[in-house]
Fold each of these.
Amino acid sequence: MEAPRLYSTKPVQSLKPTKKIPLEEDTGKASDALPLPLYLTNALFFTLFFSVVYFLLSRWREKIRTSTPLHVVTFSDIIAILSFLASFIYLLGFFGIDFVQSSVFQSSPDVWISEEEDDEVLLAKEDARKVPCGQALDCSLPPLPPVAPIVTAQKVFDEKPVTVLTEEDEEIIKSVVAGTTPSYSLESKLGDCKRAAAIRREALQRLTGKSLSGLPLDGFDYESILGQCCEMPVGYVQIPVGISGPLLVNGREYSVPMATTEGCLVASTNRGCKAIHLSGGATSVLLKDGMTRAPCVRFGTAKRAADLKLYLEDPDNFETLSVVFNRSSRFGRLQGIKCAIAGKNLYIRFTCSTGDAMGMNMVSKGVQNVLDFLQTDFPDMDVIGISGNYCSDKKPAAVNWIEGRGKSVVCEATIKGDVVRKVLKTSVESLVELNMLKNLTGSAMAGALGGFNAHASNIVAAIYIATGQDPAQNVESSHCITMMEAVNDGKDLHVSVTMPSIEVGTVGGGTQLASQSACLNLLGVKGASKETPGANSRTLATIVASAVLAGELSLMSAIAAGQLVKSHMKYNRSTKDVSKASS
């Protein structure tokens, strides 16, 4: 039976039956069928319910402490679970029947609206909603105050939109599982990227027997990644984005987005930003801007390889090669060629500007043009590969550390002594000594290649993920040497980072995705620069270096002050019980 609705209105007529029921037809209340009085039955099940709940919670807590899997149950656990279900069903279905009948239905007749007036009240309520209160003639029926529901994380998760598979989808899923339809061809066959992802996801779950319920599917534009970012998608991973700043660089303030799952990282970088800001800001200078690609070619003799090396490095031939190379793009411009010989093999390292793009594809097309051109004068040249690892891309390499790749940047700041003591909680002398023994001497002892820093890769990776860069290029982009020295008679601290191979872009690849594009927009470097080609990507590189400076400053201070372990125990230790996570 539907419960009557409660309104705060003027008194209305009391609840009356619309039809008289003969006394002999009254079959009594539902509670009359119980073997015990209703209050005793309710009390029994009420006690049973909470006793069983307490027992199960105690058992689960004991299992967690002893690392016992929760699905391993004893006979007493099974009895407790069954008792819980039985008592819960009873309480849900029967508890309070007498209370409802005696208390609710016998309340003041001035409070309840009879069934005969339902239609009239609902109509009046609809009319009141259609006209604003200020214009309506009668505002005596205000809307009920909203009651805030209790929302749990599980409820929010359950209420997310779920893609419903049709019978046709079911047939396609079976075809994918059977191997009749290739999974990679779903987008082209269906013409719907979202639907293709949903079908592929379901087929994968059936093939592996593993659930992907924790991996979101809805809420993502799968059309945006087709043919450029990711193949055969089944969902997307959520990474939180934090903000460090304001970071004052070259007179401008930036709020730096950092996508990371490492606690303390954003907070630490933010403290470094504060120290830099209070000291007047940082200065960041771009030293070089050029992406590289180095194909490997082979000849019959080492002399022929040397002939090509001399030809390519001859300044008189550079203009001709530049014209051939530059045909590939209106932004790609050849800057230089450097060669290295290994026997009969020649490695040719081309360097070119790439505008606001990171530029790997751009430089590769230009290199291919030059190789085709060289075949005329060197028909015995055998192209082994468009990339011979002398570039060098996504690998630690001395050539990048020495020659640079992408954007080469140096960033510096002078931190006041008061800021070092009050904000960074350490001293200038301690930081200078720690930097020498850790970042310089310690890294040399380890045989580091471009790793003369505390944690440059932490900041680079977080910014790269947030802004749609290639995370794998964090390898060479994190090449960094951190220098610290006391200045102004030892009162202040001069700190700098030199990073020779920051590889970033503001167009192409992941920068076009909505989330990453928003982060670039936050920095004011979204898309291509309309005034000066390449200005946005160069600005982004200086921001990356400046954020690394802030991160280095803060982490080194934490280590010098003995705060590293304490801070990580506070901000990087989860208290959430993950033993219940589904496998």
Amino acid sequence: MAAKSDGAAASAGPGPEGVAGGARGSASGCGEAAAAAGPPGSVGAGGPGPRYELRDCCWVLCALLVFFSDGATDLWLAASYYLQGQHTCFSLTLLFVLLPSLVVQLLSFRWFVYDYSEPAGSPGPAVSTKDSVAGEAAISTKDSAGAFRTKEGSPEQGPQPAPSSASAYRRRCCRLCIWLLQTLVHLLQLGQVWRYLRALYLGLQSRWRGEQLRRHFYWRMLFESADVSMLRLLETFLRSAPQLVLQLSLLVHRGGAPDLLPALSTSASLVSLAWTLASYQKVLRDSRDDKRPLSYKGAVAQVLWHLFTIAARSLAFALFASVYKLYFGIFIVAHWCVMTFWVIQGETDFCMSKWEEIIYNMVVGIIYIFCWFNVKEGRSRHRMTLYHCIVLLENAALTGFWYSNRNFSTDFYSLIMVCVVASSFALGIFFMCVYYCLLHPNGPMLGSQAPGCIFRGASEPCGPPADAITSPPRSLPRTTGAERDGASAGERAGTPTPPVFQVRPGLPPTPVARTSRTEGPVIRIDLPRKKYPAWDAHFIDRRLRKTILALEYSSPATPRLQYRSVGTTQELLEYETTV
């Protein structure tokens, strides 16, 4: 059986030896993936996996503190402007708070509606899972949300009795209360707070529950963390970034010693931007099993890196905008257009549709106005160096134009501001070098880098060998007569054709001892796996996510995820058609 998800199929069954890909979200699933793809002697099924630790809980609590401090200082500052009679500043400050918040709350509520709704009249995707250990035992469900209606405490996987009218009534009342609660939460602009608390709850549940439920809650915690990190990234660059430039421009325009409240607002916006970027990168790396996780030392280094570079960038913007308001707007629009075109030219693959990809590229263009954001796989040092050289030249030009309008002989304040911009950017580059040279998950940039694998004991790169068939097709097309004639004509014309059978090196005289491993269920996703730094499809396709969660919950063992391998499928097709 298969479950379609916008053209993709997700099916579950016993997998081959070379299972590739998969989510890092479940604990023992990581061990199984290591046994399937890693070298001999790697951790097999049931091995230790990632656990939710107390420092993860502290990270979420700090994120909540950053969120509340940013919003509270902005609203407090807007009220202060209103009481002082500065209606223009009040309107702009309140606009940069409410408009991005409304956009993010609508998106968050739309995700909730999709995750929690059960379409009437459609049975939903049909999914099934079969464990190779259990022989012929199979568990199936007709709805991707049906597995969550079973009792969480019961380990048995059997047919459930038909619900009575009283239990159905209680379920409807429960669903109504949840809908009312979520509506109220999003009307109060607290959708991200709810998701942070939910991620915290799921993480603690994965720490306290038994083995099977621990894996299930950890997987759901990763999904919730991914959602809130995406929402926060969108909100901070639509709210905190323009708020930071606005308040800095007002402070520079007034001159003298800054007031306490605008200084607090700018500081909170700056910390929010830096924290959100580092948190996004950490959750993204934690969600992928083909990348090493980002340590908290590396996350703190990223916070300091983005903190100082964004501070220098925003201060240069504020200095220039305090004198050349019109030209500043032209510069921002031109820089955004150039950066967006650069991102589109790189052919990113983050979203599931073309229009979503274009919107995403436009948002990344906004991020590139302030800081570096990696959107393409591979060694990014050349692109990152080019970007920071452009930013350095722009900061110097903007600050120089502002300084040219000041009095050089008597205005010592202007010289201090120029030194602050330069030193802040230099500190940001210093912490960036510290991160890449000492704290990068793959190892030092100047030394030998370790393979991007989450299993620290593995001495070889993750993933199956190059000749392993990781996703055999369900049905193979037969070669037609015209194709056979065309192939014969090509051979007669001297066109080189690949050999049908290839002789591979034989086994060593002494057999290599392999660890015995119990096969578990495999969820096959009929999509090519997205390359880092993109999210996996099961993190951004919500229907696929619901199906995977239902299969994971109804399976006695944590399933592994297997994406389609284009190259090996083509090799198998050529073999079939030639024979």
Amino acid sequence: MKKKGRNLLAAFRQTFLTLQNMTPQAEAEAELNAASARYSYNPILRWNPQVEDYFIKAYGSLHFAQISKALTRPSCYSCIRVNTLKSTSDAVIEKLQEIMRKSGSQNDVVGINLKENKASNDIDLDMVEKQSSLQNESITKCQIPGLEYVVFVKGSGPHEIDYGYLPDKPPKEVLVSRKCAEAVLRGAQVYVPGIMACSSYVEEGDLVAVSVAVEQPFPDGGWGLGITRGTVLQGLPTDPYHFERHGLYIGQGTTMLSRAGIFRASQGIAVDMNNRVFKLPSFYDVLEGEIFLQNLPSIIAAHALDPQKGERILDMCAAPGGKTTAIAILMKDEGEVIAADRSHNKVIDIQKLAAELGLTCITTYKLDALKAVRKRNGSSDMTTLCCNKDNNDVVNQRSDSGPLGNGVSSTTFVGSNADTTFKENVSNEKANERTYTSKADIRKNTRRMRNGPGRNQSLGGRVENSKGFLPNSFDRVLLDAPCSALGLRPRLFAGEETIESLRNHGKYQRRMFDQAVQLVRPGGVLVYSTCTINPGENEALVRYALDTYKFLSLAPQHPRIGGAGLVGRCEFPDGYVEEWLRPGEEELVQRFDPSSQLDTIGFFIAKFAVGPKDDI
């Protein structure tokens, strides 16, 4: 023990003498090397310790470390879905190339690798080689059979950026929130609300380094920033988050406002990001109606459902409408796609997207997925969608209809005289309303003018409520369930999830699945998907479904480019046992690994065939 202590003391003395004897040039090089490490992008994703142990059991230590690293970075490409009802892939590629030529965009990243599931023989090897041969181009068409309407646009990164650091003169700096930084890594600008702190004497037009403030653990066990917005950064170790933002610099930009203007304004762009760690082209307001930016696994989920013309399909948790519109386009806009979501404003967003893409087969409803099944002995309220396909008394709100000028909801009633009576009653009620405006109404209108459109003033008109749908009333159902979203990227923080919260996600999803399985007719299809890497929300849900509903069976998916599911189980310290897939089932699901060569978000898809079933 004494010998070990003497060795440590000797090593310390040697290090001290070495530092003392360093030449000024060596000292300057050491300082520049330290600055290079500091002004870089090398984040470490922090997890709840129990959650980290759980994922290590599921994936293995090395694999989970690779997943964690991949999650902190965006995909190296953007995936675009072409609206084949309005355009073609070739036409879109030509237009995008012209736009990128005019903007001077250059992409120098390696191409998209589609070799992940080569062993499954679901992707033709000739197709893979053909895709690889196209990778030297910045914009390419997907070569997977059936996905030729998908276009890939390359990005690049990570790039090393010279932030202009000089000894004793650190660069001017802007510190942004974690959520702002994640948006910037995806290609957004830095907006005023996202800035937490800033160097002093920053003026409009200054070049600034942009760093990130990631949540830190609090003594009470929670997480937070613990920083006052507007704090002055001096580039010294005494700065808030000085050590925590080491290796968390995401780029360089030009300020659009002075420091005073940044913290005085309530909105607008604060920093124009012109030198990014990851460069991904922006498609904001580009070719509206012709293209839709969507993650590749989400497109695959719509394909797994295999919608056919003339069918009746339900998207249970439809916002923001990407999969809904993908399904409608695959059906050639022929049939009926019901898009439901519990959020009023999100339903309106679906309506807007459907109108933008020119789709008329989509009907939208505000509906909680936990109350999706309407009991047969329920009330036949006029605002309820009756789900018998042969029943003509249906309340439809078409997604392409806007608000009516007289204030009547854009709701149509088919197969009865109720529409005339309903509109007359509404008109009479409007006519009989009092014309006196109270002070409370004046204050409310003033707030609306100041704060912008609210729930009942959202553009796009009213949203029709639904009390649910009758059992066995849909040919196919997509349940893209709300989840922990631990597969989304880039992600700079994951500490908020606990073992308990992950289990609660799973319980919530099982309740929604119980609703979904009742709505699919025998002989139909049910697709379940999530954007998380958590096996408790993926494989464990499949195990629950197959054990609970004997008439369900896993069905093959086409195209299949994702990896296999997890087989086995996990035992927790508290005695809880989580069952996953059994041997032979893993190849019937698709698990998208963010650390794989496919370079997608983390995603999971399971497809169930619905056999003959008893009343449930």
Amino acid sequence: MAVAALLRRGALSSSCRHDVYIRCLLSDSDLHPLVNSANLRFWRGNHNSGKFDFTDMTHPHLWYPNAREKKRNVFLHVGPTNSGKTHNALKRLEASSSGVYCGPLRLLAREVAERLNKASVPCNLTTGQEREEIEGAKHSSVTVEMADVTTEYQCAVIDEIQMVGCRTRGCSFTRALLGLCSDELHVCGDPAVVPIVQRLLEATDDVVTIQYYERLSPLVPLKSTLGSFSNIKAGDCMVTFSRREIYKLKKKIEMAGKHLCSVVYGSLPPETRTKQATMFNDDASDLNVLVASDAIGMGLNLNISRIIFSTLKKFDGICTRELTVPEIKQIAGRAGRYGSKFPVGEVTCLDAEDLPLLHSSLKSPSPIIERAGLFPTFDLLSVYSRLHGTDFLHPILERFLDKAKLSPDYFIADCEDMLKVAAIVDELPLALHDKYVFCQSPVDVRDDISIQGLTQFAENYAKKGTVRLKEIFTPGTLRVPTTHNQLQELESVHKVLELYVWLSYRFDDSFPDRELAASQKSICSMLIEEYLERSGWQPQGQRRFLHTPRKLRQEYDASQLRGYFREIDERSK
């Protein structure tokens, strides 16, 4: 019986289909029911021998047949921070009969969902760790990794498209750009992305229109440094690049006795970052100065008068380096938000030696983005694994990526973190797809507690098929941190709980304690917030809380939740 007939009749299972692909030479007549005309032309043009090279990734636009059936109208909105480009794209989304917003952060996805729902446009929220469905909604706001490339929309928006050049997440933006099936596609970002987007879309036959934007409010680079810390004023944001330095600067500013500080940095829970930003923006709050990392570069609406760089160097996980032009411009651009109480933004440094780099960066265009990230789909890896007769993911990934063929417009996304997780899950009796899911999870491989959490989740899933939270957590009490190390541990516990919630959406009934994990996660956030409030210096030596400790303790006691991650509990005995 012909292979295509078996496939049409559903006589072959999914796994058998992969085996058939690699063991049979398919004719054009066999292929025709399986692929659209574009894919067939690709097959004929590139595989005349009848053998399919699964490592050939030179035509990734053909991975998305639904999108290729449309002639999309693509509108590229490009300009600096605070130029109104995303605002205009969202107006089109709001006016459409159906649509999706794809953003780089959960905070942005939530902000857009709330905006649309407030405008009486029902909008679902979908992120790795959140699902909020609104009755009758034909719009969705998602993190870019969650973009659905099978659903048809009238309008789609991709925000911060310059992240196609990100070495780790660029592949997700490329997937959305090539794969979203919409009549209109609005793409927002830095002008440096224009050439690569134009080249990628040449192959899709889409119609591309470019609209350039100018900044809506002035940004003034100051000629002098901050000088004394006594010159700090309400609305200032001090930027540095490590948790320890953030708290050192916060203490130094507050010891002057004039200001209290909110803090924002990447490893804070998103809920905590939002609350810290809200308190900074609130005129009635005592927290009128912000100390932050580059986490403020996107995702938070902040009323900042002046950005002050404590340094223009950061450790990027590999080495300590100078900030790039795009990084400096993205952070500096958060000063002087249009429509805020600070209509003119200012930017300066602590160190006079940094001023030349700051000034030159703000005058310079961002370097042109030359290539976009790409990563093989699970289907390609699955077939490739059968071809080599193994379900060990680590060697399959290494071998595939070593042999992968790309066009000059693409690069393979950095998968070092994925390989580290693959080495862990390859030790377990798991199906290849399950291993792949664990490797895609948002685990922080540089955090020992996070890795311990993932390992225990994977081991329990492999052994029992069901992972209960009580098997990972021991009875005890979560307490407000009193030291930086305890704060860091609590942030790690929060990451483990987020990981459980993420896995619960991928493995359904196998992770049944999603609500418990979400509740624990909220408790972690509240305890971290209380730590931040307690750490604020008061001139009279008395601390003022936005939430009373007693109320917080009551909320915690009533929850009857379990305590710290087992490894922490055992170390503390």
